[in-house]
Amino acid sequence: MSILNGPRLNFWGGIRTDVSLPNNSPTIPMGTGGSQTLNLFDLPNSQVAAEAASYSDDQLNELINAPNGDYYTAGGWNHYGQHVVDMQNVLISSQGTPGAISTTGDLVGQPVYLLGSKDPVTNQPPVSGPMMVDLDPTSGITTQIYIGGLQIGGTSNPQLVIQADVVASSFDVAKRLLVGETDAPGSSPLSGTFQVTFPLSAVVSWNQNSAMLKSIIQAPGATGIVVRFVMFEMCPGMTTPQLDADYAAGQYTPNPSIGRVVGTLAPAFAGEPLICPVGRQLVNGKTGGTGYAEVVALKGQNLLSLDMLNLIPKATFRAVRTDITSPIGPNIDYGPVSISAGGTTLVTLPSSNPYLLDYYLYGGILDQALNATQLTQVNGSPLSLSAPNTVAGTKLAVSEMTYRLYCDQRNLYMDEYPEGVTLDLQVRYLGGPVPAAGSITLAASSPGSYEDSKYWDLLDYPATFAIAKGQTSVQIPISCKAGTTAQAGYTNLEYSLEDGSSFSNFRIYSITDFGIPAGSVPTWDQVYPAVLRFHYLAFPAMSRFIPLNQQDAIWNARAAIVARTADAYRGTTLYMPVVRSMSPSQRALLKAYLTSTPWQP
């Protein structure tokens, strides 16, 4: 479905994510060899922790930027990032329809760009790119990218321009390399899958002489354009010695994470999810890498279309750290790969097969023709992949999860749902309705570092939810617990049925008066520690535009700050702060100060 069942444009290249890091942990190491820690941030409330409140801003910045032995600084590998995501020499590499994908065509070689938002109030064109934001900054499973559009082709001759505000959330974060980069975060061997769907109404312009674009935009039944891309082989651009030397010289240069991206653009159809891959789900039992499959009927031919981009891992990281635009190295050669259904082999692909050897040119998607007997087997039996060779102690063993649960509601900010929210949970068995009545189990936990239940046990939800034979979806009510409005936190809510499971994440902001009497006009000495100090220390790149610790600078920029923290900008890449860490109470206090309005909690 979506990237599996219609015409496709495949692309690959490099990508940069310029995120700021000190907020990834509430503590920082101190002392010789990091033998002690300092509670630096109260992250759920976006404030400096009480233990660090007596330190000056300069002292805390010095601690954050201090070398941390042989691994970057106490505050991580990038203190000065602006959270912008940008493509690096990403080009269309193949195009066509399932079973007829070619590395030549009218759009092959055209650049692909993700865009920032146009201003929702002034309609000015984008001034920055997409923004990467973690719902829970201490977690590896709550990453989002706010996107304002997409463009194919250069600025002088664009082939396709789309403008719409959408949010991609990370799915299928799992091992992609057996061995990562040594001077890099532990996430360097992982990949993350992102998907967005733009409605057809968001297409601003397109080359109507392009047969390929016409086949996508005017595909029968198409409702939009879906883009799926996978980021992997990511590491900071500068090494630890390079960053330490940069900070010692007082340059404080941003150090984005750089890596590879492979993706596919295709028509979207009604009934398909917007932000998560669809189809039958396969999982590599060794790495956790996930792929998706669908039977496609096209021009009288039945095909098994298989998104196997993450199913076969690479062995090691790229040889040159900063080279993210040369051809991507091959995946592990496990020998001939057999695709089976119910234990019956459908096809065995030799290692020289271009969809295995040069997978990234084709978006990692394989289309395999099925005869009538094979079609029956695929429709009624779990799929699997296997190969004969053992490499680095691993074998290829991929099997289908017979049940699959998925949902477009991945990362939710509960202040947007004061009455609660209903999860529209899709449930499938071998891609179709469930064959028997069952019970979906739900369980909450912490998605990141805040393991004390007071930070995550904040939702009311049913512990189990019934699903009847023949159903393909259920609607599950979720709300904040009564009496928890003063507690901020993050919740990961997992839902499971038989061998299938998935999850949604929630951020809950606290409602507080900060101890400031109602009716008084807030002062700088009240607003800075309650609202701005955390952002000044955690995201100093913001202060290169407006120094957040300088009263006069904040006051002189008050009109822009009030505008860009308003709800009109919230779904865009222009919202401030871009990381959405400011609670409604903090925004209200800041606005009262900047407008000299009596404080009403």
Question: How would you characterize this protein structure?
Answer:
This is Ig-like domain-containing protein. It comes from Pseudomonas solani. This protein folds into four domains: 2-17 and 83-400, no CATH class; 22-64, no CATH class; 403-508, Immunoglobulin-like (Sandwich); 524-594, no CATH class. Helix 6 crosses helix 9. An eight-stranded antiparallel β-sheet has the order 21-20-23-24-17-18-19-22, with helices on one face. With 601 residues, it is mainly beta. A hairpin with a 2-residue loop joins strand 32 (489-497) and strand 33. It is globular.
Please outline what is shown here.
The chain has 601 residues and is mainly beta. It contains nine helices and 33 strands.
Draw up the topology in text.
Elements: E1 8-17, E2 27-30, E3 36-39, E4 41-42, E5 47-48, H1 57-64, E6 85-97, E7 100-102, E8 112-115, E9 131-134, E10 143-152, E11 160-169, E12 171-175, E13 190-199, E14 203-206, H2 211-217, E15 222-236, H3 240-248, E16 257-269, E17 280-284, E18 290-298, E19 301-307, E20 337-341, E21 344-349, H4 354-357, E22 365-370, H5 372-380, E23 383-386, E24 397-400, E25 403-406, E26 411-413, E27 421-429, E28 438-445, E29 459-460, E30 464-467, E31 473-480, E32 489-497, E33 500-508, H6 524-538, H7 551-556, H8 558-564, H9 584-594
Parallel strand pairs: 26-33
Antiparallel strand pairs: 1-6, 1-16, 2-3, 4-5, 6-7, 8-10, 9-10, 10-11, 11-14, 12-13, 13-15, 15-16, 17-18, 17-24, 18-19, 19-22, 20-21, 20-23, 23-24, 25-27, 27-31, 28-30, 28-32, 29-31, 32-33
